[in-house]
Design a protein that fits this description.
The structure is a single chain. The protein has four domains: 25-212, Serine Threonine Protein Phosphatase 5, Tetratricopeptide repeat, CATH 1.25.40.530; 216-298, Phosphatidylinositol 3-kinase Catalytic Subunit, Chain A, domain 1 (Ubiquitin-like (UB roll), Roll); 310-410, Acyl-CoA Binding Protein; 418-515, Pleckstrin-homology domain (PH domain)/Phosphotyrosine-binding domain (PTB) (PH-domain like). The chain has 18 helices and 13 strands. The protein has helices spanning 25-32, 34-42, 45-55, 73-90, 101-114, 119-130, 136-152, 160-171, 179-195, 204-211, 239-249, 255-258, 310-325, 335-351, 362-367, 379-392, 398-409, 499-513; strands at 216-223, 227-234, 261-267, 273-276, 292-298, 418-422, 424-425, 434-438, 442-447, 453-458, 462-468, 478-484, 489-495. Helix 1 packs across helix 2 and helix 7 (136-152) packs parallel to helix 9 (179-195). The protein is elongated and about 95 Å long. Its main location: cytoplasm.
Length: 517
Amino acid sequence: QSSVPSLTSEPNSIMLVPAGDRYTMIDFATAYFREAQSMHKLKGMSAENKSVADLVQHTKVPIQASLLLYSDSELNELATKNFKTLMRFMGDQSKLKNQNEVECIYEILQLCKEKESLHDEIYCQVIKQVTHNPNQESVLRGWLLLNLLTGYFLPSNILMPYATKFLQLASSDPSSTHHDIAKICQSNLRKNFMYGGRRHLPFPVEIEALLKGRSARRLVIPMPGGVEYLTRIKTFTVAKELLQEICEQMGAGEQEEIQDFVLLATRSDNKMVRPIRSEEYLHDYLLEDKLVTVTLRRLIWRTPLHFENKIYVDVHYGQMLWDYLNGKILLSHSKEMEVQVGILAMLQHWAKTEQQNSAPSREELKEYTPKTLQSSIRPEPLQDHVGMLLRTRQRLQPVDAKIQFIEHMMKLPFFGYITYFVERVSDDTILVPCFFGVNKEEIIVVDSTTQAVSCVIPLKELQKMRTLQPMSDGGLPGIELNYGSAASPKTMWLELSQAKEMYHTIVVILEKTELHH
């Protein structure tokens, strides 16, 4: 450890919110600043206090040595260089040739990323330069940097109560120009403490927007059923905040039900789908090139459904309809299934406002039939069956037809399982290709022809899991599952194109159902 022994960057075990007059930055400087320790040896107390106060206030001249005492000369050099970069960014010194504000911020954030032992030093430098700084534009720049620092990097356990106190004082003064951004910094620090900081440094376009005063980014969330949710997310918005906001808008505001939903990040270029964990930062998924779309999906089905909200009905109907038509719900061809397909076709027809009084054409009936069953269900008998249903049943309003469709879907044998098409499995008793289904309780292996379940792995028996790289060029990625008891451990690997998606889905389900301790 190259910094002062007491200034370690160990994991924070408790987030202190100090009260009273203790833990001011003057107290911190008195105990830990290099210069304050020198003064202590030379001066009397009153003069010393005044001089220490100067040490935590804005300066027009660059510092000649790090604020904190480092035995490592490289850290001391990096600290003084950083202070000059900070002054250039804040407008207190002229920039280097061809250097802009974005590059200054990057340089500071990159240094924090590479040198954890400099976190406290950099926090102290920024706090110093925003304190009693006569230039309001310079102060705003400094707070902008603090906004990023608090969301990305934590101060050490030693500095944490002092930094928290500083932000608390700054945010409780409504007359100051920066009390709003100080509140944001407080929130960032809390999230960083609870969830860890953002993984990826911001893109230049994000920093440029912040410099222009745009602290929120417009985001359109396509939801099942053609509903689009328009929102604005901030630099350090986590998935659980957006999830709660959307769920409340569609009448699903209870915490238990919110846990049943997930946000998905989907890349348009390679169709990669990844569920976003509730404590992950949305900006860590949103790329500069806009290739990633964030969508909403119900992942597990623990809480009973309720249909008083139209958006809620449309979202559930849209998700179930898409899954049903695109083979995401396993359906086997049988006489009973043909009857079900007919009823579900009638309900889809009634769900369309403009189709209320007409019978569906053969083309429409094909659209109402799952792709996996289109080759095995003959169109003529289906058309006759649906025609008979339309003549003999009381016509429903679109919203009621959607609710009945949802209720029918929930009775299907494999409803609630997320299914994956698997091409190879290590267990040679399992016929491949096959389907693996995952729900809130278990992983099942389903025969692709008979739909018989050949293996069940309860999620509470899952000990460990990892993704596997393809074994050859053009080969498929895989997942290795370690499950069973300590007395009878078992291992299975499987190969499928959606290996990463399946892996992350299981991780999120385990977190949501708290089976994974």
